[in-house]
Amino acid sequence: MVSISxxxxxxxxxxxxxxxxxxxxxxxxxxxxxxxxFGPEAVIEAMQxxxxxxxxxxxxxxxxxxxxxxxxxxSQIQPPVLRWHCIGPLQSNKARSVAENxxxxxxxxxxxxxxxxxxxxxxxxxxLQMCLQVNIDGGLTKSGVPPExxxxxxxxxxxxxxxxxxxxMTLPEPAEDFQAARAVHxxxxxxxxxxxxxxxxxxxxxxxxxxxxxxxxxxxAAGGTLVRVGTAIFGRRTAN
Length: 240
Ligand SMILES: *Cc1c(COP(=O)(O)O)cnc(C)c1O
What we know:
Helix content is 41%, strand content 16%. By secondary structure, the protein is α/β, with parallel strands linked by helices. 40% of the residues are buried. The structure holds pyridoxal-5'-phosphate.
């Protein structure tokens, strides 16, 4: 089996190459390692290889591995930074656990959830960093706000006290080829630019959370600033 550090290295190379190809600096793209279904030992292995941002889909599962990873990090001579990102569907009854345990939430698609996250964010923690999930390709069964409703939601979310609205997140259907994938990601980029140009937000959005193992190159070509990569780092998942 190929080690996590080797796979991470390969993914970082892909990101560097994609940045180079579109004249961007590598530091403009953050790699989020999606560790869902893998245990705390896999996260720790990735941390030992320098990875700092981790994405989880299932709150319960994340809560069970966090203490183990945090204890390991705290035991290091120079405790490394560790950031947890919630990227899965959000239910109201999980809002408190998410607000108390994550640094970022990418999958907010309604005001109610954002309000709860703000309400439950503990005062001693920095504000929760947030993206709005957009249903950019109109998938019928998909979560995400329709593009035409994003600006209004963004305005309302930005008014909440314990959050910082950072940008947009998408999870498009697999595309036919590079061009098609890039075209979909460009629609998200355009949407972000339109929102910023509207002058209706107090603070411009700076994050485009788009691109996964299979489409990180077209996402970066379209201006993505954060890629969420699971399989290419940790290997195939047996569930989900
Ligand atoms: C699982 C998942 C990923 C990672 O997908 P891979 O294809 O394994 O890289 C990224 N984003 C979301 C929202 C996911 O659920």
